Amino acid sequence: MPVVNLSMALHFRQGAGQGGAASPEPSPEAGAEAHRRLGAAVAQAAEDLGLRIAVVATGSLTHRLDRMMDADLDFTSPVGARVDGRSEPDVARARPYDREFLTRLLAHRWAELEAVDPALRQEAAPEGDNRPLQTLLGALATEEARTGRRYEARLLAYEEAFDAFTLSTVLFRPGA
């Protein structure tokens, strides 16, 4: 089966920072809307070529590897268990972001995903700033417009690992 890999990158403006260094702010072409347009273009190209495609997006809603480095983990016990026996992992501070983001995603409130509280988003530090997911949603929205069928999202799994990141598996299927 042919596979086309797309790589997401936060394109930083050159020369915008001090001393000509790259700015810490992503350029507009790196935003959610640009990635949705990318997904729409992929879906349209597949339609134009008469191809059926599957779009797979990866990335953790909470991606705090900086916390993982400080964790005192016992690798002989369940994933992420701490030697010191603490019951509440550091990743718990990011749960409100995951909860709000997943609530909107599963309710097909995709236009509201970027409006989740910026402080919660910063605490979670989503991998790739959720741009792969935005690309997937762009492809799905294009397919919804083409077929008139809404895609339903179903959360298959949610896990926290190593006090550093969360793993969510969401399946999108066309509704009846």
Low-confidence stretches: none
Give the SSE order as H and E letters: HHHHHEE
Structural class: alpha+beta
- Number of beta strands: 2
Largest sheet report: 2 strands, antiparallel
Strand order in space, largest sheet: 1-2
CATH-defined fold name? Protocatechuate 4,5-dioxygenase, Chain B
User: What is the helix fraction of residues, given as a range?
Assistant: 25-40%
Number of helices: 5
**CA-atom Rg in angstroms:** 18 Å
Query: What form results from the Cα inertia axes?
Result: globular
Domain count: 1
Could you report the average pLDDT, rounded to the nearest whole number? 81
Superfamily (CATH H level) name: LigB-like
Distance between the termini: 28 Å
Beta-strand percent range:
5-15%
CATH top level is Alpha Beta
- CATH architectural label: 3-Layer(aba) Sandwich
Structure description:
The chain is α+β, with helices and mostly antiparallel strands. It has a single domain (18-174), classed as Protocatechuate 4,5-dioxygenase, Chain B. The chain has helices at residues 32-49, 65-68, 95-106, 118-124, 131-147, and strands at residues 151-161, 165-174. A two-stranded antiparallel sheet has the order 1-2. Helix 1 crosses helix 5 and helix 3 crosses helix 4 (118-124). The longest helix has 18 residues, at 32-49. The two termini are 28 Å apart. The model has no long low-confidence stretch (mean pLDDT 81).
